């Protein structure tokens, strides 16, 4: 917690100065908030093509128009809006197929996610776990082949980065001793939805670390895989949390980063500023920050392996053969 408060009050992430000419970048959840601001930055950094992956096509089109109108530089970027609904495996599979038709792909920023206190199932799993963990990793696996292919062709490491959160350190994770983690998380009687977002970010961190471990970066596999935190930002993510949203929005006024400031961390991760040193790392304030406490412990590593095994089963059910990309 001391690191959190220091970061919020005394650190302002800087936007990397880099020319992204010729590059193609995908940002999920790009019609609002952090994703929108990151997409705008990429356009202003001369990216040739920025793809806004959004659940709502119309809202995505509005966001793309706003970015085009934001500056002369942004107006020169080829902006596209592609449908992507992380609550639907069919939508994710269709998105993955479309990604693999691209001639070039340099970076994917997996930003889309949800925060809800309402228990409901999506694709057979509790919605927060489906969207923030299973579907997000599924999307990552589906874009990996194109990132590898493009990185080799352009002799430049590709980047697959996931937006996590430092709230993983706050997860009570009472389900951690369960024989079947995902099945237990699907139980409405046992689910602590007040802790669910924190747990989803903890599980995402575990999953990304294992994904990076299974894909060691090399000249034959030149893709940097990381997970980042933008810090506590003013965001619409709290809109579905009832009374909690009022409390969180009040806290955001006091100590939250402006969304544009938080988005700089997404951009920094996407350009791979630290090179291969950031592969498999948790990035906080634009630099690697080794996970603390539970995550690197022996028990944490056992849970990471267990989760990955369970995830593989879910992913194969969603898109048969997808785990062969690992």
Automatic annotation (TrEMBL):
Keywords: Oxidoreductase. One of its GO terms (molecular function) is oxidoreductase activity. Gene3D superfamilies: NAD(P)-binding Rossmann-like Domain. SUPFAM superfamilies: NAD(P)-binding Rossmann-fold domains. It comes from the Eukaryota. Transmembrane segments: none annotated. Signal peptide: none annotated. This is Ketoreductase (KR) domain-containing protein. It comes from Cryoendolithus antarcticus. The lineage of its organism: Eukaryota, Fungi, Dikarya, Ascomycota, Pezizomycotina.
């Amino acid at each position: 917690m001391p690191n959190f408060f220091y970061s919020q009050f005394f650190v302002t992430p800087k936007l990397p100065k880099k020319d992204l000419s010729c590059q193609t970048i995908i940002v999920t959840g790009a019609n609002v908030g952090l994703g929108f601001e990151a997409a705008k930055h990429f356009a202003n950094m001369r990216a040739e093509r920025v793809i806004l992956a959004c659940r709502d096509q119309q809202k995505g089109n509005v966001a793309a128009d706003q970015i085009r109108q934001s500056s002369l530089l942004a107006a020169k970027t080829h902006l596209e809006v592609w449908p992507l609904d992380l609550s639907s495996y069919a939508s994710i599979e269709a998105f993955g197929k479309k990604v693999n038709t691209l001639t070039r792909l340099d970076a994917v920023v997996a930003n889309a996610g949800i925060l809800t206190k309402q228990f409901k199932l999506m694709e057979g799993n509790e919605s927060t776990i489906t969207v923030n963990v299973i579907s997000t990793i599924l999307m990552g696996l589906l874009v990996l082949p194109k990132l590898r292919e493009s990185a080799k062709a352009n002799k430049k490491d590709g980047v697959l980065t996931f937006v996590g959160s430092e709230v993983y350190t706050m997860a009570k994770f009472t389900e951690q001793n369960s024989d079947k983690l995902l099945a237990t998380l699907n139980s409405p009687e046992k689910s602590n939805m007040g802790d669910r977002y924190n747990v989803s970010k903890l599980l995402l961190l575990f999953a990304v670390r294992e994904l990076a471990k299974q894909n060691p970066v090399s000249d034959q596999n030149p893709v940097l895989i990381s997970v980042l935190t933008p810090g506590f930002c003013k965001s619409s993510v709290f809109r579905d949390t009832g009374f909690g949203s009022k409390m969180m929005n009040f806290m955001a006024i006091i100590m939250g980063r402006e969304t544009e400031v938080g988005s700089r961390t997404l951009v920094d991760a996407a350009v791979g500023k630290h090179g291969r040193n950031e592969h498999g790392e948790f990035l906080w304030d634009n630099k690697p920050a080794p996970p603390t406490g539970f995550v690197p412990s022996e028990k944490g590593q056992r849970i990471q392996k267990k989760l990955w095994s369970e995830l593989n089963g879910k992913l194969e059910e969603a898109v048969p053969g997808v785990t062969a990309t690992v």
